[in-house]
Amino acid sequence: MEKNTGNRRKNNRNREKETEWQERVVQIRRVTKVVKGGKKLSFRAIVVVGNERGQVGVGVGKASDVIGAVRKGVADGKKHVIDVPLSKSNSIPHPTTGAATGAKVLMRPAAPGTGVIAGGAVRTVLELAGVRNVLAKQLGSNNPLNNARAAVDALESLRTFSEVAQERGIPTENLYA
C-alpha cells in the first residue's frame, strides 16, 4: 500500500510539470521592513502565468527567499487568471485601453506577421496570453507591476463580435451593417 501511494505522488508531480502553464518572472525586488531589531529583508516577485491559448494572470509573491517568493507569485497568478478573446489572426478583436493606479496601457490589433510590439511587463502578459499580433504602448507610470495589471485590465475589457451582438439582441450578421 505504501509503495502505491508513493507512485501516486510521483504521478501527480509529473502531471504538474507537464501542464501547459508557463511562468515568467517580470521582476524580483529586495524589500526591507524596519523592525525593532533592525531591518528585515524579504523578496517580492512579480510573475506572469499563462497558457498561450487565451488565459493569463499576474501574481505577486513575497517571501524571505527568492524561490519562495516566485512560488507564491505563481500561485497568486493562477488565482487571478482571466480569459482573453483572440481573433482568427491571433490578435485582439478591437482597440482597448487599461489602467491600474498610475499606469495606462493602450492596445491596438495588428495585421498578421506584425508580431508583439510592446515593452516590458506588457509584452510578457501579451505573449503568455497567446496574442501574436498587437501594438501596445505604456503610458504614465513605468512600474512593471502596475503596467502588467493595466495590461490585464485592457485584455479583460475585450469583447468578441458575438458577445456584442448577443448583448444587443441581434444576429451577428446584422452587427456589421
Automatic annotation (TrEMBL):
GO terms for cellular component: cytoplasm; small ribosomal subunit. Keywords: Ribonucleoprotein, Ribosomal protein, RNA-binding, rRNA-binding. GO terms for molecular function: rRNA binding; structural constituent of ribosome. It holds the Pfam family Ribosomal_S5. InterPro entries: Ribosomal_Su5_D2-typ_SF, Ribosomal_uS5, Ribosomal_uS5_bac-type, Ribosomal_uS5_C, Ribosomal_uS5_N, Ribosomal_uS5_N_CS, Ribsml_uS5_D2-typ_fold_subgr. The keyword Ribonucleoprotein applies. Residues 1-12 have a biased composition (Basic residues). Residues 1-21 are annotated as: Disordered. Residues 21-84 form the S5 DRBM domain. GO terms for biological process: ribosome biogenesis; translation. Transmembrane segments: none annotated. Located at the back of the 30S subunit body where it stabilizes the conformation of the head with respect to the body. With S4 and S12 plays an important role in translational accuracy. Part of the 30S ribosomal subunit. Contacts proteins S4 and S8. PANTHER family: MITOCHONDRIAL RIBOSOMAL PROTEIN S5. Belongs to the universal ribosomal protein uS5 family. The N-terminal domain interacts with the head of the 30S subunit; the C-terminal domain interacts with the body and contacts protein S4. The interaction surface between S4 and S5 is involved in control of translational fidelity. This is Small ribosomal subunit protein uS5.
